[in-house]
Amino acid sequence: MTALDWRGVAAEGRDDLDVATTVRLRARSRALLRSLLRPHKRRLWWAVALLLVSNFAAMAGPYLVAVGIDKGIGDDRLLTEVVIALVIAAVTEYASKRAFLLLSGKIGQGVLLDLRTRVYDKFQTLSVAFHEKYTSGRVISRLTSDVDAIGELLDGGLDDLVIAALSVLSVGVILLTLDLPMGLVTLLSFPLLLWISRWFRRESALAYRRTRECVALVIVQFVESLGGIRAVQAFRREPRNDEIFGQLNEDYRVANDRAFKLVALFAPGIKLIGNATIAAVLVFGAVRVIDGHTEVGVLAAFLLYLRRFFEPMQELSMFYNSLQSATAALEKLSGVLEEPSTVPAPADPVPLPSARGELTFEAVRFGYRDAVVLPDLDLVIPAGETVALVGATGAGKTTIARLVSRFYDPLEGRVALDGVDLRSLSEEDLRRAVVMVTQENFLFAGTVADNIRFGRPGASTDDVVAAAQALGAHDVFAALPDGYETDVRKRGGRLSAGQRQLVAFARAFLADPAVLVLDEATSSLDIPSERLVQHALRTVLADRTAVIIAHRLSTVEIADRVLVLDQGRVVEDGSPIELLERGGRYADLQQAWDDSLV
């Protein structure tokens, strides 16, 4: 599988992974777990020490009962000492286990905090190409349901799993030491225990991996349906969405049902084997007591230890579903964290503290999957020049804008800013130098002022107001119910399209980039709003390099230079007036635009 196997498995619902892939996934998961636990190494050693003390105190109980029965009855002093020892053991077990649970809880929460931070940071650093290609629902699933699965194990199951495993090991050794013949009888159950445990481990691993895949698909459908709720309701898509969600929901139920059926077979199976073993030991031990080969107290202690042996085995079965679910989630998350970036940060970035804004495309070849969009582009945009890109849909306009913003890297050739390959610039220098304004600029929850200072978080209120005034937008923002402190609400829903675009321009103006990319930034506006934005646009573009993509030729008129693109090649190049006088494709586009306004 490729580095993208965390998505491939989930998307295809595969449960037939080959051995090599399974081994690699588990190795990768263990490596992630080790890195998460490494900062807590000292606390882990303390937790181990507390666990050993708690286990030692718990194991002392049945032995003290055996001493009390065999030697304490008739000896009041010894019986008193045994009772006191039992009380001390009980208090020690309580105190050490309480301390262990508190400490392990801190470790677990620290691990979850680190994991959530890593996953969140990773998704932020992954390229725009990644987020355009893969659904937000699957991304949300990684950060919510998968992290929650690990959290459930750390919060509610891991402690018991560790304690149970240590108890099983300790009791096994004690049984063989206490009475070897009865211990050997107990060992007769081990082949059955081993077989049923290995069967459950194999089948449950597949089952719980499937549950993680199904819940991811449920979240994907839920997020996409709500994200496009307007289209859903406008086209009465609800019945079809209900069918799709119902099927995914049913698949999730079936996957969980399969997991519960496995537990329903495993847990009673362990109990059946345990009760049969206890019965066999009771009969065999009774014979040994009658024959004088062992004592009643030893038999009683042996039976108590057997209970402590098989009860944890049942607990292990009950918590194994959490373990398998968390393991499957850890596989997905480790894949996320190993996802390579398609626009990696340079190992040794070239500093560019103050960009002039000259853009150069040198033999740039780029395409999406198998479709080549830019076969061989050579282009120079001098610093301070405003260039408009026009052409039919698919001509390569938006691709050029994405390459300038380094949302993608060219397959061949290079895109340079002031002679420096964009791939050699640090993220900080690049984002300070290049800003993109799109048709639907995302506004975050918060005030108008908060959204304007998004590109320069440290800007003061005076800076925000000054930017709006420079654009001629101050009166628009001041007229809002709470002025610049007006809450824009979800996705800027409280503002009109024109107001949102003015916020975007003010944000770009305040960020003061050397290069500004406008990707159809005025195409969704009505005429009055467009005129208002056009005034702001002239201010924003002054003294900086600009690349404008526009279907509305009214926006192109302010450009110094127009490039007409066709299949990724520049077929016309000149000022708007020159191209109109020359005749050709741009003149035809202008005529078609004028006709559309009649």
Q: Can you put this structure into words, describing what you see?
A:
With 598 residues, the chain is an alpha/beta fold. It folds into two domains: 21-337, ABC transporter transmembrane region fold (Up-down Bundle), CATH 1.20.1560; 359-596, 3-Layer(aba) Sandwich (Rossmann fold). 66% of the residues lie in helices and 10% in strands. It has 21 helices and ten strands. It has helices at residues 5-12, 19-37, 41-72, 76-125, 128-133, 136-178, 180-187, 190-227, 229-234, 238-291, 296-337, 397-404, 427-433, 448-452, 461-471, 474-478, 497-511, 527-541, 553-556, 576-582, 585-596, and strands at 359-368, 371-381, 386-391, 412-417, 420-421, 434-438, 515-519, 545-549, 561-566, 569-574. Strands 6-7-8-3-9-10 form a six-stranded mixed sheet, with helices on both faces. A four-stranded antiparallel sheet has the order 2-1-4-5, with helices on one face. β7, α18 and β8 form a beta-alpha-beta unit. α3 runs parallel beside α6 (136-178), α6 packs antiparallel against α7 (180-187) and α10 (238-291) runs antiparallel to α11. It is elongated. The two termini are 58 Å apart. 34% of the residues are buried. Residues 1-16 have low confidence and may be disordered.
